[in-house]
Structure prediction request, 342 residues.
Amino acid sequence: MVVVMAPDATAEDVARVVERVESVGGEAFVSKGLSRTIIGLVGDIESFHHLNLRTLAGVADVHRISDPYKLVSRQHHPERSTIWVGSTTRVPIGPETFTFLAGPCAVETAEQTLAAAQMAKAAGATILRGGAYKPRTSPYAFQGLGVAGLQILRETGDAVGLPVVTEVVDVRDVAVVAEHADMLQIGTRNMANFGLLQAVGKAGKPVLLKRGMTATIEEWLMAAEYIAQRGNLDIVLCERGIRTFEPATRNTLDISAVPVVQAASHLPVIVDPSHAAGRKDLVVPLSRAAIAAGADGIIVDVHPHPETALCDGPQALLGGELRELAQAVRTLPQVVGRSSVA
Ligand code: PEP
Ligand code: MN
Prediction:
């Protein structure tokens, strides 16, 4: 069950609902969205009915949600959400706009990160990506620069005027990543790391939640529910390809996930064609497909020297391919009724 508070509900109104729910042995999880607060109820539904929560001050509506995910479900929230990223420059990700996020897979040096950020910005990107903690398949591969990488990313973002998103792979690093980044990324390998999801749910920054490469859409939305349940509804979902029998691409981009998720959840959904394909020649066609399917944005790897990149060089764009992508992002969103964010 979900209680939707009115936009002008006070903290006391919220506390009263929580207190009533707890008085009958239930649990109440309060999530603050941009325009209103919603409260997810866990416990005996029958006893909640007797509380007549609809009659309490500040309560706009009470819904019984049949989806297994509640707070992120579209059943109680028909309008799709817009999530804002950044503090000085605030960038929307949502249904009206198309948002282009780009940057290096990994922060390697200050020079490489600045060069990649300038490429990203020149191509029209409005949020800078870059990994400081890299969850690599091999323990012998480059694992990222850690805190030094976070500092480089933050300084670079400030220098070029772009908010930054970066991955967090360990509960112990959530605080330091939240201190440096405007948005926290949960990668495909950690989508079902429930302790980490709960920790980013309390970190006070928007979250970019990638789909687990073997996760169903329902499992992915349940992962989002873990974040929402800890009080954070500022979640952007990211389809990044799933593991199938097809070896031609690194993963298979599940383009149908875009409209399926948008029908099921009010959260925005973006696409990562770089990690899906693992090949730079597919990034532009998959990006066009993402725009056409109605994605709320894309996140793309760029690198000034892909041949020497410490991580994912074969999928990084530069030069002509990046110009082609920039052209697609400038022109195609309006064909499907959106403006591109620049
Ligand atoms: C990344 O975006 O840097 C990354 C590691 O992606 P994924 O978790 O989708 O593999
Ligand atoms: Mn990568």
User: Anything to note?
Assistant: The longest helix spans residues 319-335.
